[in-house]
Amino acid sequence: MSKVLVIGAGAAGMMAAVCAAANGHEVHIYEKNEKFGKKIYITGKGRCNVTNSSSVEDLLQNIVRNGKFLYSAFYSFSSDMTIDFFENAGCHLKVERGNRVFPVSDHASDIIFTLASLMKKYHVHEHLNTEVKSLYLDKRSVKGIILDDKKLVKADKVIVATGGLSYPSTGSTGDGYKFAKKAGHDIIDTFPSLVPFNIKEEFVKELQGLGLKNADLRIVSGRNTIYHDFGELMFTHFGVSGPLILSGSSYLGEYLQNNKIKHNGKIRIIIDLKPALTEEQLDVRLLREFDENKNKVIKNILPSLLPRKMHNVFLNYADMLPEKKINEITKEERTRLVFCFKNFILTFDGFRGYNEAVITKGGINIEDVNPSTMESKLCKNLYFAGEVLDVDALTGGYNLQIAWSTGFLAGSSV
């Protein structure tokens, strides 16, 4: 029987601890917080989007970065297996729109309670309020850990599952990157992902709180379309947020990282406010509105076209006076209105910080990690799991599935 130490009691760490202990190892889990799974508590707005009920191939299609690396992990512990794992442990789940899986109770605490109960069942030794300062290394092998009080804890295997940098209030402060570096690993540059955007235009503040449920959104750089999708977004006091933006941030982050550029005021967010209509169809619609309201002013026909909160902003954007009479609008002005409806353009002004990021992009270079076991190729008996690795996915339960699958594989492989 080996002595296994798990650093970090989040999703990946708890899963790794349960799997290692279930296989007969003496397992100790170390968490610097006062309780387990602090980040799980806030996932899915407190409901915990456990996974996505999809095939392995579908899961892989929703991985933005280094999906091939997760092939073995997903086939070893798929989303169906995740669902069975929690169901068999007494935590009942349900499937909602987009194949998103949640606890029937809608309480993230049920997921944490289930994992904590399994750790007790398999006699995992729990060390809360205990911070790990570094790995104890001997040549090219890990021999244990050194705690904050300088105490040395020897072990046969160590699993690092410390998370990334997102939501630092939950304890994600990048410790795992420091541990990996000491063991010889490269760290791919990290930055916030699945995160809202700052927008340069001041008028977004006037739109704060406005949600668009049927928006078509493109993120472009020059002639390159970085991301294009249809769905929901919301305006905030700083810019834009919502499902479309969070997913778009993952692709934009990948683009910026791959091209080694920082935002330079040239990334544009283009929103089609009337995606159901072509420009020609929208022009016909405007002509009909104009014919029926010849003696009105332009601001009085906008309620049938746009949310009220957007009226003044849109007219300013289209360089149209609110009191302009319909019968005085020229063909050129109508063409401009059509263009502005189809191309409401915002200027990207950077990502919001880690405090608002769902995940961290970047992390431990996966080229030096065995995808079949999650063991380091550079340091014997050292394993990694979860967000600390340079893998990330879109919203919808995929990132937690990465945690479950890599945690399972690490815990099973020791």
Structural account:
With 414 residues, the chain is α+β, with helices and mostly antiparallel strands. It folds into two domains: 3-192 and 359-413, FAD/NAD(P)-binding domain (3-Layer(bba) Sandwich), CATH 3.50.50.60; 196-352, Helicase, Ruva Protein, domain 3, CATH 1.10.8.50. The chain contains twelve helices and 21 strands. A six-stranded antiparallel beta barrel has the order 13-16-15-14-17-18. Strands 7-2-1-11-20 form a five-stranded parallel beta sheet, with helices on both faces. The protein is elongated, with a radius of gyration of 25 Å.
Major sheet: arrangement of strands = 13-16-15-14-17-18
What is the total number of structural domains? 2
First-last Cα distance: 10 Å
Instruction: Please count the helical segments.
Output: 12
How many E strands? 21
Mean pLDDT: 94
Biggest β-sheet: count, sense, barrel?
6 strands, antiparallel, barrel
Structural class: alpha+beta
Q: What is the C-alpha radius of gyration, as a whole number of Å?
A: 25 Å
Which helices and strands appear, and what pairs or packs with what?
Blueprint: E1 3-7, H1 11-22, E2 26-30, H2 38-42, E3 51-52, H3 56-61, E4 63-65, H4 71-76, H5 79-88, E5 93-96, E6 100-103, H6 108-121, E7 125-127, E8 132-138, E9 141-147, E10 152-154, E11 157-160, H7 175-182, E12 187-193, E13 197-199, E14 211-221, E15 224-235, E16 239-241, H8 243-258, E17 267-272, H9 279-292, H10 311-317, H11 331-342, E18 344-351, E19 359-364, E20 382-384, E21 392-393, H12 398-413
Parallel strand pairs: 1-2, 1-11, 2-7, 11-20
Antiparallel strand pairs: 3-6, 4-21, 5-6, 8-9, 9-10, 12-19, 13-16, 13-18, 14-15, 14-17, 15-16, 17-18
